[in-house]
Amino acid sequence: MTYEVVIGVEVHAQLRTRSKMFCGCATTFGRPPNSQTCPVCLGLPGALPVVNRAAVEMAVRAGLALNCTIGSRNRFARKNYFYPDLPKGYQISQYESPICEHGWIEVVSGTGKKRVRIRRAHLEEDAGKNVHDTGTTGSRVDLNRAGTPLLEIVTEPDLRSADEAVSYLKGLRDILMYLEVCDGNMEEGSFRCEPNLSLRPQGRQEFGTKVELKNINSFRFVKDAIEYEVKRQTKVLNEGGKIQQETRLWNLDRGETAVMRSKEEAHDYRYFPDPDLLPLDLEKEWIESYRATVPELPGNRTNRFVSEYGLPESDAAMLTASKGIADYFERTVRLFDHPKTVSNWVMGELTREVRQSGGSFETSPVSPERLVSLLNMVESGTVSLKAAREIFPDLFTSGKSAEQIVEERGLTQVSDEETLEKIVEDVLERHPAQASQFKEGKQQVLGFLVGQVMKASAGKANPGKVNELLKRKLSV
Length: 476
What we know:
With 476 residues, the chain is an alpha+beta fold. It folds into three domains: 3-288, no CATH class; 296-409, no CATH class; 417-474, Orthogonal Bundle (Arc Repressor Mutant, subunit A), CATH 1.10.10. It is built from 15 helices and 16 strands. It has helices at 53-65, 162-179, 219-238, 284-289, 298-309, 313-320, 323-335, 339-357, 368-380, 385-398, 402-409, 417-430, 432-439, 445-456, 463-474, and strands at 3-14, 69-70, 73-74, 77-80, 90-93, 100-109, 112-125, 129-131, 140-142, 149-155, 191-201, 211-214, 246-251, 256-262, 272-273, 280-281. The strands form four sheets. The protein has a nine-stranded mixed beta sheet. A three-stranded antiparallel beta sheet has the order 5-4-15, with no helix packed on it. Helix 12 (417-430) packs across helix 15 (463-474) and helix 13 (432-439) packs antiparallel against helix 14. The longest helix is centred in the middle third of the chain and has 20 residues, at 219-238. The radius of gyration is 30 Å and the shape is elongated.
């Protein structure tokens, strides 16, 4: 039997607010356990929640960027379940009236661009975290995360492969990071993705039984987990078994999924409107005022980089994946109007150094101005391209100017024609046989003669000038 894979994705994106969703506690990552808590996020009796305005604003901006309809009237609900990291016994979320609905984004699939529909995006608070230390018999609870504002974004079941799911997740993450509403850090849990998938016989319209996958903190693991689960479900169905609706964890060490619990339905959570929070009424004018704050998003910026700068689409996509890289590129191009050259340096030498240093393009010690000073030296022939690449790590770490590093290392390129002419003439006198061979049509010996000139000049001769002079001399 041939099966079609049907995938939907839920993403929990932590919003970049300074305080929690319903209280004033900080959301800083990595603080000592239970040091960022108060009666509200601890669920103590009598503590009342207050909505974080900044979280609502971020949700609206995200919804507009995701082409959603923003609900002018929405309300919070209690999602009831018991777990040790949920001290209230319920999670404040949104159910019947989410803040964002009916959106979409475009992703790149195997057949080109594809529109993935977003069913809803709603605000909710995060739960705490159970801590299971190796070598201990019990578990502990850290409630620093409890109450952290999340935007849960849910797609329709529009994805048909692991690659499409990863493409969607990368595109969504890029958008949220461009908006600066989420830092996208998967390792710290700021961007948590939970694919759910099912199989159905090819050509059938009815959906199969879906399985939700959790505990995935990288795009590579998303791909691996989905592909494993597709193989597992295919085997079960081909052997006459039935897929159970359940939640499964991705076991990285074993490279397989394992049952966590049976999958709950909405009615299992007994949703009801939170009596401590009034309905949230958003005026249309207020919503529209945020549309102007949505920046040019990655997809549109990619298209513009291709049309405006003449870049290959692969270059444009890589440059626009991060707002920091795209901004750096455009600032540099304004100073040095050679887009492809700038693209090569930004994607190559600069990206390598930024990653190795653990920094960012926004804080790069090589500013666009410093990079352009080096590129100008290459263009003018003051330094060779090879030498420029060799000194770039020093430019990145030393704080010295490109001119200073070139001078200290004695890498200034010889481009003076009179000086080079003497070296070329000397080389031709010492290698008459090769000179004759070139004149007889053996073009390949030119490389040998260029090499001899470079050797005689201790590598400082301008290769372009050397080629030009040799051809001129040999054509006489």
